[in-house]
User: What shape does this take?
Amino acid sequence: MADTFDAIVIGGGVIGASVLFQLTRLGCRNALLIEQGELAGGMTAYSSGVVRTHYSVPINVEVARASFAMFEGFKDLLDGDPDADTGLVRSGYLIVAPPGPSSEAVRASIAVQRSLGVDAHLLDQGQALAKHPWLQLGDIDAIGFEAEAGFADPYLVTTSFARAARRGGATIRTQTEVTGLIRDGQAVIGVQTKDGPIHAKVVLSAVNVWSRVAAGWAGIDIPFHITAHHVFTLAAAAPYTTDLPVLKDLASPSKLYMRASGGHLMVGAGHEGHPASDPDRPDLEADQDTLMEEAMQAAHRLPAFEEGRLVHSWSGLYDTTPDWNPVLGRVPGIDGLQVAFGFSGHGFKLSPMIGRMLAQSMLGLEPDLPINPYRITRFEEGDLLTGVYGTGAVS
Ligand SMILES: Cc1cc2nc3c(=O)[nH]c(=O)nc-3n(C[C@H](O)[C@H](O)[C@H](O)COP(=O)(O)OP(=O)(O)OC[C@H]3O[C@@H](n4cnc5c(N)ncnc54)[C@H](O)[C@@H]3O)c2cc1C
Assistant: This one.
């Protein structure tokens, strides 16, 4: 006889683990997470871990803000677990823009954040240098800063959520691949795995860059493509310390973001990335010419890195929708199935609140924040979640 659970989550990244934890908190203890590899071994392992609320799309600001509050109160959120940790460094987030449209976008986004109660401000150059003395700001017009931001550790967050879910009664099966969905007419009533069928009242697919495979099981087409994005670290003569805010440089050709990492500078490209096709093969070798070019861009903003040494680099994949925002919740016409994909480069910072909203949706409850803006049908309806930045992970 097939195993039976109240709810199944496919995918053990930060999104799946967050949902599983929230299911148990909402009283759904007979929940199962199935992961083909190990927890946090998918794209969560490649994440730069930046957390911020700087968006121009208001619902993103609200989800990011609620998530940041959950990161800050993580031990309490996880029922007082003394071992729970996020590795959160509350360094703040500083965004700089040259004159022109991106400068206007920074001002507009700060206004949106402030209208929603976020502690975000425009700074003059003196104020910015007081927060980040390493900066060169000669070509910069607008500077935004928010205090409720920084970076955290995606592995710690994922495994903390998973432990808390287990304590709440949930089951986690790793090294177990889902190979299809079990249907009863149009409804999904479980999943097929290599170890046999498992039944459930509701199934969530949270498989990130593998979502096209999952869409194939459901027989639906999804608005989605995958792209490769590289990250690297640089060393300067002096340590780059964690009191320096996360930096987003809209004046750099590659729209770089930068943060401290073990005394080094972590640099990631914030552009549209490089087309990729195989979710199992993130391009682990970043192109050296590109890295050198982007290291020079970083050194333009932070001259202490003009003689910087390249320490390490890696690439990961983004799951990207046409508006670079996630698709969450029910799939019209298929009862019992919910999806979570399209987080591109900003799924980690949204993961705590997204977990809550998805768990509520799976259990037929009203989500604490509206999930409808993230509905899958918004693309065919022409109701995209696009703000003043256009498409991109800062949307
Ligand atoms: C280079 C890089 C930098 C990033 N930087 C940031 C950042 O600074 N801040 C931020 O907020 N976000 C960032 N992101 C984005 C963020 O990390 C992701 O959005 C987030 O980790 C996605 O989590 P997930 O759970 O959806 O996916 P994943 O972690 O990929 O988890 C999906 C899981 O599904 C499993 N799976 C797939 N198919 C099956 C199957 N058939 N059966 C069972 N299991 C299956 C996979 O093994 C995988 O573990 C970055 C991403 C990358 C790649």
Notes: The mean pLDDT is 95. DSSP finds ten helices and 19 strands in the chain.
